């Protein structure tokens, strides 16, 4: 067994203080997201982990790409019949997580999820490269398949079938809007005394912010 006790780093690049942050967490998210986007050291600022709770009560986490964020929440796209899609039928809440190590920052978001309107999913699907569109048709996401060749054969057949045709969005593929009700901003600090500011949505739809111990 490898001993990892000595693998640690000192966090000292930034601070996160109450008098420096926005009153609305979506504005604070925008500021931090723009910092991540503008950093040459962050490969995909919009990569986020999403955790859903499956029928056996165990959370399952995977990486997806954030495709938009608005005052209402965070938008991503997937196959509705995937494991995450099936989990969201039974429990429409999820946790989103962003981690940008080079900035020593993470954001944890608890949200209620709902499907996007079909016209919005249609619009995004139409904007995707044709290869990605065909990929959505090829893959029965999360289902057992015999081998890699199964996917490659299906892709070749669809490339031929749609050579001169527009690819329509399959009904089982589309977007979700994650409406946040809790957002935590974490900033690494020296001596593990990290800054943690938690925003909670109130009944009057205002946001309350408190500081959490690290």
Features:
alpha+beta; 5 helices; globular; 214 residues; 9 strands
Summary of the model, kept short:
The chain has 214 residues and is of the alpha+beta class.
Map the helices and strands:
Elements: H1 25-38, E1 47-53, E2 59-65, E3 68-69, E4 74-79, H2 83-90, E5 93-100, E6 105-115, H3 118-127, H4 130-138, H5 148-161, E7 173-187, E8 195-201, E9 207-211
Antiparallel strand pairs: 1-2, 1-5, 3-4, 4-7, 5-6, 6-7, 7-8, 8-9
Structure report:
The protein is α+β, with helices and mostly antiparallel strands and 214 residues long. The chain is 26% helix and 32% strand. The chain has five helices and nine strands. Strands 1, 2, 3, 4, 5, 6, 7, 8 and 9 form a nine-stranded antiparallel beta sheet that branches. Strand 7 and strand 8 (195-201) form a beta hairpin. The longest helix has 14 residues, at 25-38. The chain is globular. The chain starts with 24 loop residues before the first helix and ends with a strand. The model has no long low-confidence stretch (mean pLDDT 96).
């Amino acid at each position: 067994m490898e001993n990892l006790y000595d693998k640690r780093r000192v966090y000292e690049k930034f601070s996160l203080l109450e008098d420096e942050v926005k009153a609305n967490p979506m504005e604070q998210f925008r500021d931090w997201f723009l910092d991540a986007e503008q950093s040459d050291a962050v490969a995909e600022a919009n990569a986020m982990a999403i955790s859903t709770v499956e029928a056996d009560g165990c959370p399952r986490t995977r990486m997806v790409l954030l495709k938009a964020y608005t005052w209402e929440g965070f938008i991503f796209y997937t196959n509705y019949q995937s494991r995450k899609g099936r989990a969201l039928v039974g429990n429409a809440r999820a946790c989103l997580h962003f981690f940008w190590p080079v900035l020593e920052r993470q954001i944890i978001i608890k949200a209620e999820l709902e499907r996007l309107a079909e016209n919005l999913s249609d619009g995004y699907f139409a904007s995707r490269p044709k290869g990605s569109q065909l990929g959505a048709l090829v893959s029965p996401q999360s289902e057992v398949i015999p081998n890699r060749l199964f996917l490659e054969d299906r892709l070749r057949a669809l490339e031929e079938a749609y050579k001169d045709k527009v690819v329509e969005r399959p009904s089982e593929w589309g977007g979700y809007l994650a409406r946040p009700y809790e957002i935590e901003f974490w900033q690494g600090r020296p001596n593990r005394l990290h800054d943690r500011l938690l925003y909670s949505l109130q009944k009057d739809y205002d946001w309350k912010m408190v500081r959490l111990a690290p």
